[in-house]
């Protein structure tokens, strides 16, 4: 074959279903009860002939259930969450599409809905991304692995089948503020998220530490409110009542887009009259005019890391999975900032 063989190729060669191939390679106790010895040997022989090796995540998960993972995000329209989903899907599918796992995404959830999904047996594991604290409460079933992404590490503390993959968003925010101060800006505007989530508390802490000694004007904004909410907050920040700062830090890139809109309404030039920094580095950030200086949050890496952690937490895992280090973030300097 001129490509890597997949589980489907093995199934066709052995004359069985793809589900049977997945079960044979799952390592689960159910395999010995549901697949005869003769069928198992036929599958293994076909795999050997083709040079097939199952993808690691699918093999390690070993739950013998649905092959489905649930990714819960606060806002399915948020561009950052599209990056997380892309990374999770790629990791779940494997390099040749033979990972045996699929990712379902949902943003219409609260804790009760998440608990029902976990108890219903539909999903082999849950990825919960950037959860709002008000959505969480009580306990999820202990037998379902859960990985929290860009979240408070206390959510997984002490639980053998929970882990948290953080992003170093505080350092990213500090880099953004430090960049503006190096350019000479000592009066900073901050469009601060009002959402109750660990990721925004971390951004706020990073901002406050880096902005110490500077004059700061803050206006709250709902990052889940989209462009309309961003424009409304930007009008307040850039209006005469605030004394109009000449540099603005935004808690995400969609909020930064709202600043661009309002700056145009007011006849302000970016960056000559107003420097703007965002956070996320969404796909559209280089398309802003001028291109947006922003903190890159590696959404694809975050989603992929979550799937790998779920694989390690799956039933039958022989070793404890350590709590991972935060993924690094970095500032991407483009044309929206100046002296």
Helical segment tally?
12
Structural class: alpha/beta
The termini sit apart by 58 Å
What general outline do the C-alpha atoms trace? elongated
Q: What proportion of the residues form beta strands (DSSP E)? A: 15-25%
Q: Which regions are unreliable across 5 or more consecutive residues at pLDDT < 50?
A: none
**Taking all residues together, what is the mean pLDDT?**
86
Largest sheet: 6 strands, mixed
Number of strands: 11
CATH architecture of the largest domain: 3-Layer(aba) Sandwich
Number of domains: 3
Q: Name the CATH superfamily classification of the largest domain.
A: Response regulator
| SSE ordering | HHHHHEHEHEEEHEHEHEHEEHE
Q: Which class of the largest domain in CATH terms?
A: Alpha Beta
| Radius of gyration of CA atoms, rounded to a whole number | 24 Å
Short synopsis of the structure:
This protein is an alpha/beta fold and 339 residues long. It has helices at residues 7-14, 18-24, 29-34, 37-50, 56-61, 79-93, 111-119, 169-182, 198-210, 226-238, 253-265, 299-313, and strands at 68-72, 102-106, 125-129, 146-149, 162-165, 187-193, 215-221, 247-250, 275-280, 293-296, 330-332.
Characterise this structure.
The chain is an alpha/beta fold and 339 residues long. The chain folds into three domains: 7-54, 434 Repressor (Amino-terminal Domain); 68-167 and 300-327, Rossmann fold; 169-297, Response regulator (Rossmann fold). The protein contains twelve helices and eleven strands. The protein has helices spanning 7-14, 18-24, 29-34, 37-50, 56-61, 79-93, 111-119, 169-182, 198-210, 226-238, 253-265, 299-313; strands spanning 68-72, 102-106, 125-129, 146-149, 162-165, 187-193, 215-221, 247-250, 275-280, 293-296, 330-332. The chain has a six-stranded mixed sheet with strand order 7-6-8-9-10-11, with helices on both faces. β1 (68-72), α6 and β2 form a beta-alpha-beta unit. The longest helix has 15 residues, at 79-93. Keywords: DNA-binding, Transcription, Transcription regulation. Residues 5-63 form the HTH lacI-type domain. InterPro entries: HTH_LacI, LacI/GalR-like_sensor, Lambda_DNA-bd_dom_sf, Peripla_BP_I.
């Amino acid at each position: 074959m001129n490509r890597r063989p997949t589980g489907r190729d093995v199934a066709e060669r052995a004359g069985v279903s793809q589900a049977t191939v997945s079960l044979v390679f799952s390592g689960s106790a159910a395999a010995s009860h549901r697949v005869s010895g003769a069928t198992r040997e036929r599958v293994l022989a076909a795999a050997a002939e083709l040079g097939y090796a199952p993808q690691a995540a699918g093999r390690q998960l070993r739950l013998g259930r649905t092959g489905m993972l649930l990714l819960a995000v606060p806002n399915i329209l948020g561009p950052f969450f599209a990056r997380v989903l892309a990374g999770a899907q790629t990791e779940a599918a494997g390099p040749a599409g033979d990972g045996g796992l699929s990712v379902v995404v949902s943003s219409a959830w609260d804790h009760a809905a998440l608990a029902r999904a976990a108890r219903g047996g539909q999903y082999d594991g849950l990825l919960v991304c950037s959860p709002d604290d008000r959505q969480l409460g009580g306990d999820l079933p202990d037998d379902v692995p859960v990985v929290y992404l860009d979240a408070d590490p206390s959510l997984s503390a002490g639980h053998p089948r929970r882990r948290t993959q953080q992003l170093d968003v505080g350092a990213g925010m500090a880099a953004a503020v430090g960049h503006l101060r190096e350019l000479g800006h000592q009066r900073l505007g901050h469009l601060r998220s009002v959402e109750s989530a660990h990721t925004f508390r971390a951004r706020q802490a990073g901002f406050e530490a880096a902005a110490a000694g500077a004059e700061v004007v803050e206006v709250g904004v709902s990052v889940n409110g989209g462009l309309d909410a961003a424009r409304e907050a930007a009008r307040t920040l850039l209006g005469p009542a605030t004394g109009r700062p000449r540099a603005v830090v935004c808690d995400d890139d969609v909020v930064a887009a709202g600043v661009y809109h309002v700056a145009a309404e007011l006849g302000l030039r970016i960056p000559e009259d107003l420097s703007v920094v965002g956070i996320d580095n969404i796909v559209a950030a280089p398309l802003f005019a001028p291109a947006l200086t922003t903190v890159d949050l590696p959404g694809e890496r975050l989603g992929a890391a979550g799937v790998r952690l779920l694989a390690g937490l799956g039933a039958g895992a022989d070793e404890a999975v350590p709590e991972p280090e935060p993924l690094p973030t970095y500032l991407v300097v483009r044309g929206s900032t100046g002296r």
